[in-house]
Specification:
By secondary structure, the protein is mainly α. About 55% of the residues lie in helices and about 5% in strands. It has helices at about 20-35, 40-50, 60-85, 85-90, 95-105, 125-135, 150-160; strands at about 170, 175. It has a two-stranded antiparallel sheet with strand order 1-2. The model has no long low-confidence stretch (mean pLDDT about 95).
């Protein structure tokens, strides 16, 4: 369920009982991110880690990995900042607060699990999580959304337009219009 980004939990409160459990959090997070990266990227990363592929991953894989990392870390930071003075995070240890923030940042994009009470979140946090849901996972993955590469190309296109550039160039490669 976690790898497929389906969000089906076996407990009535999803995974709220495991909010501070690093083993469960890490296992579920790894499965969600793995399913959300996409099979193409997973294959390339696997080949790269096995040493059978030389050089950096291709443009698609790099965009997927970098945007995913930015969304995870940025999402956790924003979640933490928005909820740090609310009862949602106040009752947790400092480590538990960060586990909750990272978990919600990752699961919001397409998986749908929760380790905190979603109904008790601040409206600004819910709006932010909705943005993460809209973005979703990566192409050829088990998740939905507009996709991480679409977000990256939108941002890069805006950046190119602000510099009066006719084309989007990423790592020395032009992206066709």
């Amino acid at each position: 369920s976690a790898f497929c980004n389906a969000g089906f939990a076996l407990f009535p409160d999803s995974l709220m009982g495991f909010v501070e459990d690093p083993v469960i959090n890490l296992m579920v997070i790894t499965l969600i991110v793995g399913g959300g990266l996409g099979f193409t990227v997973l294959g390339l990363v696997n080949a790269w880690l096995a040493g059978s592929r030389r050089g950096p991953p291709d443009l698609h894989a790099r965009l997927v990995i970098i945007v995913t990392a930015i969304l995870i870390v940025g999402g956790a930071g924003i979640f933490y900042l928005l909820e740090m003075n609310t009862p949602i995070l106040q009752g947790l240890t400092p480590g538990g607060r960060w586990w909750a923030a990272f978990f919600q940042s990752i699961t919001a994009r397409t998986a749908g699990f929760n380790t905190v009470d979603i109904g008790a979140l601040h409206p600004s946090t819910l709006f932010f999580l909705s943005i993460l849901m809209f973005i979703g996972a990566s192409p050829a993955s088990t998740g939905g959304g507009i996709k991480t590469t679409t977000l990256a190309l939108m941002v890069l296109s805006l950046w190119a337009q602000t510099r009066d550039s006719a084309e989007v160039v990423v790592w020395g490669r032009a992206i066709p219009a």
